[in-house]
Design goal:
Elements (H helix, E strand, L loop, with lengths): L3 H8 L3 E3 L5 H11 L4 H6 L3 H22 L1 E5 L4 E8 L10 H9 L3 H14 L6 E9 L8 H16 L2 E6 L2 H9 L3 E2 L4 E3 L2 E8 L4 H5 L10 E2 L4
Parallel strand pairs: 4-5
Antiparallel strand pairs: 1-2, 2-3, 3-4, 4-9, 5-8, 6-8, 7-8
């Protein structure tokens, strides 16, 4: 008889590593997925300006992960996960980050800096880990298990290497999703001017752990370095 875990693995969408040719489309996927959360509306209140600025803003994150981490996507480029390896202390942003951020976000740059600094103060320390900076699924493709497939692909590698994962969930809904995939609370909620985020950590799992854990909820959107 086929186990639930084996059946889920067989039906899971294929996951591939992205490269520089995917930068534009994946930046747009993230911008669309994070267009409406409360923190996003605080960062840039006007919908038209938010829609104009967000793709360039998230392009910074995609390029950073392509250069210094891993970017996983689907064959149809409708979902994306940005992972960054982190040591016992969080690494500073790239040397060009502040200038790029100011150029892209213009009059709203102060709010983006407050956002970044607040998350940085709460970031996991004391253990090396991989940071899920962003998990996003194109809005019209959500609810099909694409986010879960992206998580499972990298979790398998982390489990083999014995490495923890860390993220900041952007809502109570996404916190439930990550809990179903093995994440636990990591400190107090992060209170931002536009909303609340939830730091979470996942410890690497053994084969025995996995036999007793079958995620029933699909993870289709999460936030992890910017909304």
């Amino acid at each position: 008889m086929t186990s639930p875990r084996e059946l889920a693995a067989r039906t899971r969408p294929a996951v591939v590593l992205a490269d520089e040719t995917c930068t534009d489309i994946l930046s747009k996927v993230i911008a669309d997925a994070f267009f409406d959360p409360a923190v996003s509306r605080w960062l840039i209140p006007g919908p038209a300006e938010r829609r104009r600025i967000f793709p360039g803003h998230f392009r910074i994150y995609v390029e950073h992960a392509l250069s210094d981490g891993m970017v996983h996507t689907t064959a149809s480029r409708d979902a994306v996960a940005l992972w960054l390896p982190v040591g016992e202390e969080p690494a500073p942003p790239p040397a060009w980050y502040d200038q790029r951020l100011a150029a892209v976000t213009g009059p709203w740059v102060h709010r983006f800096r407050v956002f970044d600094e607040t998350l940085d103060r709460h970031h996991l320390t004391g253990t090396a880990h991989h940071h899920l900076a962003i998990l996003a699924v194109r809005p019209d493709r959500q609810g099909r298990g694409l986010g879960s497939a992206l998580l499972a692909a990298h979790h398998a590698a982390l489990d083999r290497e014995g490495i923890s994962a860390y993220l900041e969930a952007s809502s109570i809904r996404s916190r439930r999703l990550y809990t179903a995939h093995g994440y636990d609370a990591c400190g107090d909620p992060i209170v931002l001017p536009g909303g609340v985020m939830f730091p979470m950590v996942r410890q690497p799992r053994t084969a025995e752990d996995k036999e007793h854990h079958h995620p029933a909820i699909r993870a289709d959107q999460g936030r992890e370095a910017a909304p």
